[in-house]
Amino acid sequence: MLEIIRKDIMLMLRERTFASIVFLLIFIASISSVITFGLLMLYNPDYLGYAGNVKLAVVGDCSIPGDCVDANTAMSMFRERKVDAVLFVTKVGDTTYIDVLLPDDDITAIQVLTSLKRDLVEYEKKVRGELGIPNLDLKVFADGFEIKVPSGSSTIFKFIYLILIPLLAITTAVVAAGLTIDSVCEEIQTKALEVLLSTPLTPFRISMAKILTPFIFSSSLTTIWLSLLFINGIEIVRPVETVVISASISALFVAIAYLTAAYFKDRERVQLLFSIFAAGLLPLLMTKAKSPAVMVGRAAAGAGFDVFLAAVFVVTSVSLLVISPVLVKIGRS
């Protein structure tokens, strides 16, 4: 069985498509700090000490810095691109409503909102003072000392622990599943399985080798990209839990890929079915608070998660992986 595992690993390394995906995963993890820097530069220049100049046209209360004009003039200036945005300020009793008209270009709109945020914060403080509402300034202390938290810190945190790490975990699982499908279907379609069955190896042991190879591969890959994230200064608070839950996602995907490949035997049909399954499952894994992918990010960040639910998922995934060769053996005609 070890010979089959060794052979499959060598074939994986020679497969250009999967080798490229693995390289891409490692590359993304290795430059995660650069990616984070670029994200901040795009979405929150204030965090990096950069503040662009934005021209505004204000209709209504002119307490907000900008060209105070009427609605028709403001719209004309906006269409002629003399201003970057238009603010319509309306007071109804003690409540102030502000409608913002932004350009269609997403990047420009983000830059405008970033600059506009400062002006609106100052305007909010002014209105609070006029209404006699105290302004509450939150301060953060660590070990008895006040620390300054940049406004973009939450953006970094969300990107790394809610997007980057869960996405790396899912991509690793999908790669492992793809390797499983190719390995199983290739043995069947090239008739190499008949040669293996002529050896003392049983169909069960052959099947176990076919699922252990991608699982070992994905677990090793998970350890590599987590290590690269750590080298890039991204703290992995609970590395053991992160690796275990991430590996269980790979176990689930590998088990499903094996069962599908061993049953249908045709590579194109299996790849189509698994692609549909993965595409439908991806939104659930990335958006649901109790999904295993989200729990991977929460474990890495040191945040709380449902330990019982995580344990159930890990046990279920590993159990399905172990019994999948019993449910369907690739040696069965």
Alpha-beta classification: alpha/beta
Sheet with the most strands, sense and barrel status: 4 strands, mixed
List SSEs in N-to-C order: HHHEEHEEHEEHHHHHHH
Number of helices: 12
Mean pLDDT level: 79
Write up what this structure looks like.
This protein has two domains: about 1-40 and about 150-325, no CATH class; about 45-145, no CATH class. About 70% of the residues lie in helices and about 10% in strands. The chain contains twelve helices and six strands. Helix 2 runs antiparallel to helix 6, helix 6 (about 155-190) runs parallel beside helix 9 and helix 9 packs antiparallel against helix 11 (about 290-300). The radius of gyration is 27 Å and the shape is elongated. The protein starts with a helix and ends in a 6-residue tail after the last helix. The model has no long low-confidence stretch (mean pLDDT about 80).
SSE map:
Elements (H helix, E strand, L loop, with lengths): L1 H13 L1 H15 L1 H12 L12 E4 L7 E2 L2 H9 L5 E8 L2 E7 L4 H26 L8 E3 L2 E3 L5 H37 L2 H6 L5 H29 L7 H26 L2 H21 L4 H10 L5 H21 L6
Parallel strand pairs: 1-2, 1-3
Antiparallel strand pairs: 3-4, 5-6
Helix pairs in contact: 1-8, 2-6, 2-8, 3-6, 6-8, 6-9, 6-10, 6-11, 8-9, 8-12, 9-10, 9-11, 9-12
List its traits.
2 domains; alpha/beta; two-stranded antiparallel sheet; 12 helices; four-stranded mixed beta sheet; 333 residues
